[in-house]
Every structure is written in C-alpha cells, then in structure tokens.
C-alpha cells in the first residue's frame, strides 16, 4: 500500500511510482500532534487526518519549527 505526503502540492507526491523519500506518521503524543497539525494547517490551508503521513522534507520543517518554539 502506498502512502502519500499529506502536504498539498508536495513535490514528493508527483512521482508516486518511484518512492525516493521517507514518510513519517503524525505523532501520537497529543501535544506534539497538535503542534504538527497546526503547522500543516498553515502550509496546507486545510486540516489533515492524524493518521496521515508527512514526507521527510516536511518532517525536517516540523523538527525545525519545534526547536524554534522551545528556544
Ligand atoms: Zn511532503
């Protein structure tokens, strides 16, 4: 079963036959999950399901944003 990045118009969704990137599940931890969903909402302009996945490109952004908020 193939999973896509939940980010709208993500370049990693275009070439679905050749999967050259890693996908990450949205965290189960409520606090972290809400943070991710908030960022995704900002990028996407729409709410995504917590069961959806995010590609490594956006995963890095999540970690990065998280670090900024902590600091
Ligand atoms: Zn993506």
From TrEMBL:
THAP-type domain location: 1-71
A Pfam entry, by short name: THAP
Annotated keywords: DNA-binding, Metal-binding, Zinc, Zinc-finger
Example GO molecular function: DNA binding
Residues of the signal peptide: none
Record field: transmembrane: none
InterPro entries: THAP_Znf, THAP_Znf_sf
The name this protein goes by in its record: Arginine/serine-rich coiled-coil protein 2-like
Species for this entry: Aphis craccivora (Cowpea aphid)
């Amino acid at each position: 079963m193939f999973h896509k990045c939940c980010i709208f118009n993500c370049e990693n969704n275009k070439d679905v036959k050749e999967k050259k990137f890693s996908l990450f599940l949205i965290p189960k931890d409520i606090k972290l999950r809400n943070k991710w969903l908030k960022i995704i909402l900002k990028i996407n302009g729409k709410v995504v399901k917590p069961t959806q996945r995010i590609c490594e490109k956006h995963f890095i952004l999540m970690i990065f944003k998280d670090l900024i908020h902590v600091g």
